[in-house]
Amino acid sequence: MSDIATIEPSATPSTPKKSSPKASCSSTPSNSSKPNGEAINVSTPNSALHLSNQYGFPLNYNGQIQLIFGNMFAGKTSELLRRLRRYQYAQKETVLVKYINDDRYSKENVSTHDLVQQKAIPTDRLEKIASQLLGYHVIGIDEGQFFPDLVEFCEAAANGGKIVIVSALDGTFQRKQFGNVLSLVPMAESVVKLKAVCMVCGKDAAFSKRITDEQQTEVIGGSDKYIATCRKCYMTRNTPYSKKSKSVFQDSMLEEHEECSDYSEHCEIFSPQKH
Question: Helices in 90-213 by DSSP H: which ranges?
């Protein structure tokens, strides 16, 4: 296994002063969408107060939301860590949050595919750890698509003066909206969509294609389960996969890519990562 570069988190923040809530509200967490799929409006003064009470961030409206999304292997987590480092250089207190079920490289660290890691707080719902984040200036969230309360948390934190940086997949392997990520777009000060390189032909890739037989939406994995593809390779190429050998996958793709001179240069990338 190759060496792992680790980024140290910023110092433990000072404990913020608690403010008394200005109005009572239900402690029941709200969802990012109604049962019929209609988004809940979290952009009104009343909703801002409700979210402030729910998540514990005192209102001052001095924060912002930065959204980084794209497909697999586009460098989303790397960009998230880069932005956190910028604030760390300026002596800002930063913290990183990860999805608790993503333990591909570590249970306690966020990791890029090239094994740059940073300590993170694992959770399955952001409301559960909101009280731990009050004293930080910058909050990074990796794999944002997995958090059901992503929209409410980010809005509450930004209204409370926090800089919230989210990296997330925007689409599933079926090219459907993933979680509530796209609902953040009209609420964010900064939105960037990153693209990978097609692992079949080498063109720009905007889509994640699954190469295993699993059908459920949440299947966490790396190059052992997904490849990045362009539109043409996503729509027209079969992707059979063999855990014992990559030859089944490659042979099938080669038959359909005789016209593609770039294919042979990218063939080796299909094998699962070895650590």
Answer: 150-159
The residue behind tokens 């003064």 is 45
Residue 67: phi and psi, rounded to 5, are -115, 125
Q: Return the amino acid letter for 225.
A: K
Asked if 47-194 and 204-270 have one fold, the answer is no
- Segment holding 117, helix H or strand E: strand 116-119
Active site residue 152: no
The identity of residue 160, as a single letter, is: G
Catalytic residue among 79, 127, 143, 155: 143
pTM assigned to the model:
0.72
User: In CATH, what class is 47-194?
Assistant: alpha beta
Distances (CA, A) of 170 to 34, 100, 198, 225: 20, 19, 17, 18
- Write the pLDDT tens digit of every residue in 155-208: 999 999 999 999 999 999 889 999 999 999 999 999 999 999 999 999 999 999
| Domain range summary for the chain, segments of one domain joined by + | 47-194, 204-270
Contacting residues for 63 by C-beta, under 8 A, at least 6 apart: 157, 158, 159, 160, 161, 162, 163, 164
- Beta bridge partners, 139, equal 95, 164
Cβ–Cβ < 8 Å for 212, 179: no
Q: Which CATH architecture has domain 204-270?
A: 2-Layer Sandwich (3.30)
